[in-house]
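Researcher: Quick one. two chains, 600 residues in total.
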Amino acid sequence: MVSDPRRYAIGFVGLGLIGGSLALALKKAGFASSVIAWDSDPSVLERAAHLGVIDAAAHSVSALMQSVEIAVLACPTQACEPLILDMLNDSGSAICVTDVASVKGELYRAVVDAAPKSAAIYVPGHPIAGSERSGVAAADAALFERHRVILTPDSNTDPLALGLVQKLWAAAGATVQCMDVLEHDQLLAATSHLPHVLAYALVDALAQSPIREDIFRFAAGGFRDFTRIASSDPVMWRDIALANRDALLAAMDDFCTRLEALRSSIAARDGAALESTFRSAKTVRDEFARDLALRDSGSS
Amino acid sequence: MVSDPRRYAIGFVGLGLIGGSLALALKKAGFASSVIAWDSDPSVLERAAHLGVIDAAAHSVSALMQSVEIAVLACPTQACEPLILDMLNDSGSAICVTDVASVKGELYRAVVDAAPKSAAIYVPGHPIAGSERSGVAAADAALFERHRVILTPDSNTDPLALGLVQKLWAAAGATVQCMDVLEHDQLLAATSHLPHVLAYALVDALAQSPIREDIFRFAAGGFRDFTRIASSDPVMWRDIALANRDALLAAMDDFCTRLEALRSSIAARDGAALESTFRSAKTVRDEFARDLALRDSGSS
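Model:
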């Protein structure tokens, strides 16, 4: 890729771990000429300015949109819809608007319905990265390095806007891939939202057990790893589950079909069927773990 | 605890990671005067002797039982039943017989039915420890340090036999707790066997997806951790699932009830119910993780 000598005025609407980390990465890469931000909590902006994450605070979304070329929405899932509509219906000087929400279909449909004139400059985005930590104080310029970012443009997306968002993420060290918006939501339902629901359901089920005390007294490291995601933020996951409702319900149903098949094999003492399913799952999972290790080591 | 100056002749029937590690730990602690072993695979015994894990190989289970005071069955789940009956029906010089199988009820009932005369010297045991590695070459004298061991004696168990097995595990650095055999199996179904089945079912479901390739291409570290146990040995887990069939089916049904409740909340867009379940699961899981961290640091 030929390096782009242009620097851009970048604005963040909502500034937590993801927005703050992206701001730091874009400053470090020399992609940002300036970074300004608006957040519903003014103390976040004070802290961010103090930490050098942003250059200035905007007093409103509208004011921010008047002075940026690229606007990034990086707020919690539930707050996304009204804010993206504000950003697009009064897009000011922005050449493109993007976001980092982990569910894309619902937001995309809201934009097409309620801000059709500016929908072309909206490039839906989702960085596949995160941390147990949250808040702008945890911002890390390296958070996206070697991570993947999915963009879900459609045939109406302005190529200039798309190109800019691709460059932005590349500058932050991420690998960018475009995908259909529905496939994105199915993918995330399968690999992230469903596992979270399963972990919450498992801990919930065990917490109801008459031998609950001994269960948690004797559970060991494997159980801790398997249930780690049940320690995730309940509000964030409530919002994600509802925003990706249809794809998540479909993924839950597919899962239950396979679980029911395993149940039948166990009930019928069908060792051959059980071993066959376990073996093919192990093969798939081993292959995935190998690929991921290669990816993490930078070979792929 | 007053230290016991006595050393014991110890025999292992089946010698893999668990048996080998226990043998090394008991030698190191000065609890074993000698360690002999029998295994269905003679090359395992050669390797173990070469590695200094055992002092001698027995040519049969019966020969082993003639020369030991404590006999430990440490073979795969499926092979346990005939071997424990051989050990008890011809118990030779053994004062006690114990095992390390991760399911206890089925084996216990087989012993009571088929070796009632020697059942009193059988002390069912289960060390809550393991490793991704397997085989005697991976044996580690420290494997059980600070880990828990559950024993499931009943009112007929010989107190001398029980006391010896307690001392044996204490010598290996483990914390020993006695428990009812049915509660043990419920406990393990909940904290270990059910999570394994869920991980296998999840990978199996995703492997059937039309977007399977992208699913595994984009899945990240959280998914890797959640599915790690789906890379476990399929034969071992087939045997465990069948041996602990009743408790596992009950645990699966409890889990499905809670999952179905979450499904209904998502389908009905009932954010309050969803958040409430996620929040209470997070509270329970956070508390468990804190307790486990204290335990691991040796404070509890």
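Chain A touches chain B through 89 residues (CB under 8 Å).
Researcher: Thanks, that's what I needed.
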